Every structure is written in C-alpha cells, then in structure tokens.
C-alpha cells in the first residue's frame, strides 16, 4: 500500500490524528491548503511544508516515509494524472519544478548525486492513496539505474519497450521536461482521454549523470497493457542506498 498519506502526521501530534490520516484520501491537500499556503501568505514561511512557491503554484513536502523522499504538490486542487488541468495550455510545469526540487533529496542525504540516480514518479489513479496530485522525488534503485543505462543514447522522442523489475515499461529519452517534452503531454498523446490517463504511471530520471547534457528518460507503464503496472514507485528507493554506495 502506498504510504504518502503518512505525511499528514507532520501536521499532527496525536497518534489518533495519524491514524485518521491513514483513511483520509485528502490528507495531502489539507496539509497544503489549510496549513502551508496560508502560512506562506500570512508570514512568508511555509508552515508544515519545506517550501511553498505561490507564483509557480506548488509546494514541496518532506514525506515521513524514507530518509529523503519529498513530494511536489500543486497548490491548486488537482486530483491526479487523469485531470485535464495538467494538459491545459497554462498548466504549471510540474515535472520541471519537481526536477529542480531534487536538491531537497540531496540535502537529506548530505551529498550530491548523479542525475541518473534521482527520480520523479507519479502513480495511476488506481495505485494511489491520495486524491491530490503529487510527484514523488527520491533516489532511484541502483539496479534500475543500471538497467536504464542501456537507453542513455536512445534517439530522442522515440519509445523503446523494456522490462524493469519484472514489468513492462516503455522508455523515451527527451531533451527537456517542458512544452512538447512535458511527460504528461508525451504520455497523453497515446492516451487521449481521462479514463486512459487514469491507468498510467510515469517515472522520470536522468539519462546520464548530467541531465542537462544527457537528457532525461520518461518511463511509462499502464494497467491497460500486458504485464503493465499502474505504479512505478517501486523503481525508486526510499532508503536511498545509492547515497551510501549501495
């Protein structure tokens, strides 16, 4: 079971409150909308969050699961990957903002990591616990980074199928995370409605040690394909063993 809901415990001191969070699919939204944004507006400090960017309309929250995992959460009400809002012409560049926010992962482990050891991930509607869009930001599993290295020199904008951790994914190398290369837009080209997008999971990681030079890999699977997956969160490592050389 996905455990990002546990982040609500940051806003509670009583054990009963933490137990209530476990059944509250709006927990993340309440943290951002009730605590973080009002605090930023009133005092210039982000409250329970790590940061709140009012101009770009997102907050970063440290998840209590894992040593380094952070979440990017919109300050707008956005249910998840199936929301038409993420494809609107004026939609924020959540993936680009999440990638910039990888520095909070590095601060947590107190070291700089190569870009191909860092990852961003969003779950499908059917493999998530929260009904507010959130992008996981954390370290990659070392074995997955090693497996993805074979795609480091793929021609940009072409899908290639592969098996990762026993499940089927398609992988595309891109040279940016915005505009036409926005991962939501790329995945939506083959999933043109909310029902199709609801089944998708997306992971983004550096194609090499420097994403600025090497590009990024978009890793996509769905519940609508043979041996597909609605979550790529298992490709991340919330223990961040790569920071310890593991």
From TrEMBL:
Pathway: Phospholipid metabolism; CDP-diacylglycerol degradation; phosphatidate from CDP-diacylglycerol: step 1/1; Lipid metabolism. Its EC number is 3.6.1.26. It is a single-pass membrane protein. InterPro entries: CDP-diacylglyc_Pase (IPR003763), HIT-like_sf (IPR036265). The keyword Transmembrane helix applies. It catalyses: a CDP-1,2-diacyl-sn-glycerol + H2O = a 1,2-diacyl-sn-glycero-3-phosphate + CMP + 2 H(+). Keywords: Cell membrane, Hydrolase, Lipid biosynthesis, Lipid metabolism, Membrane, Phospholipid biosynthesis, Phospholipid metabolism, Signal, Transmembrane, Transmembrane helix. It is found in: Cell membrane. Residues 1-21 form the signal peptide. It comes from the Bacteria. Belongs to the Cdh family. This is CDP-diacylglycerol pyrophosphatase. It comes from Paraburkholderia agricolaris. The lineage of its organism: Bacteria, Pseudomonadati, Pseudomonadota, Betaproteobacteria, Burkholderiales.
